[in-house]
Design goal:
By secondary structure, this protein is of the alpha/beta class. The protein has ten helices and twelve strands. A seven-stranded parallel β-sheet has the order 8-7-6-9-10-11-12, with helices on both faces. The two termini are about 30 Å apart. About 35% of the residues are buried. The structure holds NADP nicotinamide-adenine-dinucleotide phosphate. This is NAD(P)-dependent oxidoreductase.
């Protein structure tokens, strides 16, 4: 019997899955209640849609996990789903599908800060003046969370002549790219970095990790870049650190909540740049998600394990 795959992704994406050689039966989960697909599907492909967010904190539906053998999250983070999602026999995540794009965003943020050519541009001879520029080569990039995104950032930063210091949680088998200096604590990374890149998952451990104590460790002039999740940063503490000169600038692709309410101080702060959670450039890289999912579904149909299984105790 063919595998029944319920997918919350776009119709063209699902048509591509249905055309895989082992011909899975691809169905759309009930709109507004995607978890009900558990009554008939073997595999449920989910995205962080509002229905899932609305059920965070609520008990699991009676039918969950039903017939499901595998829940596959299109997103790398699983923090936007209710905790009972992990009651499914197997949960995987979309780790790696957008890391390269996100790393490009981080490098752009560093260059915008270090070499602000727009601010240095002149329009007349009278404008001719000395404008001090910062440095990329020779700067220290601190990567907090050396996973798929952190490693993609590290590769680029090393190639551009920066020093890279990093920290990770310490999962077994984790790889440290050549040239990266792995330090023993988040504090040590923050204390040395000119540009601090946040690339940890949102877990109980990382909630408000960047609070007053940690931000006080930053070098004067340091630049904080968050492409992970808004909840990792205590936003009140961030504003206080910027105002006190403990930090020079923050680039935030993610905030808590998203979007921030109208009038929030971060919108208008002169040392803050916010982008609307676009660093993954999802539309441009969704072919990578398709390739990953196609390979994983093919493996699963053969009785093999798919990639990037979420560890229930770690929470990512
Ligand atoms: N802005 C966006 O559009 C976007 C897109 C994709 C992902 N994200 C976010 O970015 C996060 C990271 O993505 P990824 O694909 O790089 O994930 P990943 O491959 O799972 O890497 C996460 C890294 O964080 C480390 N870590 C976990 N908890 C830690 C802690 N308490 N202290 C220090 N390090 C810790 C892990 O350590 P180990 O290596 O020791 O396990 C790992 O190196 C995702 O969870 C998601 O929330 C955002």
């Amino acid at each position: 019997m063919s595998l029944i795959v319920a997918s919350q992704l776009e119709p063209e994406f699902n048509a591509g899955l249905a055309a895989l050689p082992f011909a899975p039966k691809v169905i759309e989960p009930p709109v507004g209640e995607p978890w009900l697909a558990a009554e008939q599907a073997d595999v449920l492909v989910v995205r962080p849609s509002p229905e899932w967010r609305a059920l965070r904190g609520a008990p699991s539906p009676a039918s969950w996990p039903g017939k499901l053998r595998w829940v596959c999250s299109a997103s790398a983070g699983i923090d936007s789903y209710p905790a009972w999602l992990l009651d499914a026999p197997l949960v995987t995540c979309g780790r790696g599908t957008a890391s390269e794009e996100i790393a490009d965003y981080v490098i752009a943020a560093i260059y915008l800060r270090a070499k602000d050519l727009a601010a240095a541009s002149i329009r007349s001879a009278a404008d001719w003046r000395f404008v001090p520029l910062g440095r990329f080569a020779g700067a220290t990039i601190g990567v907090v969370g050396l996973g798929a995104i952190g490693q993609a950032v590290a590769r680029r930063a090393l190639a551009l002549g920066a020093r890279v210091v990093a920290v990770r949680r310490g999962s077994a088998g984790a790889v440290t790219p050549e040239g990266v200096e792995l330090l023993g604590s988040v504090e040590a990374v923050v204390a040395q970095a000119d540009h601090i890149v946040i690339s940890v998952p949102a877990t109980l451990e990382t909630r408000h990790l960047f609070g007053p104590k940690l931000l006080a460790q930053a070098k004067p002039g340091a630049h904080l870049i968050n492409i992970a999740r808004g909840s990792v940063v205590d936003q009140a503490a961030l504003l206080a650190a910027l105002d006190a000169g403990q930090l020079a600038f923050a680039t935030l692709d993610v905030t808590d909540p998203e979007p921030l309410p109208e009038g929030h101080a971060l919108y208008t702060h002169s040392q803050v740049r916010i982008t609307p959670h676009i660093s993954s450039n999802y539309q441009a890289v969704r072919h990578r998600l398709f390739d990953k999912l196609s390979q994983d579904l093919t493996r699963f149909a053969r009785g093999e394990a798919p990639s990037d299984i979420v560890d229930r105790t770690r929470g990512y």
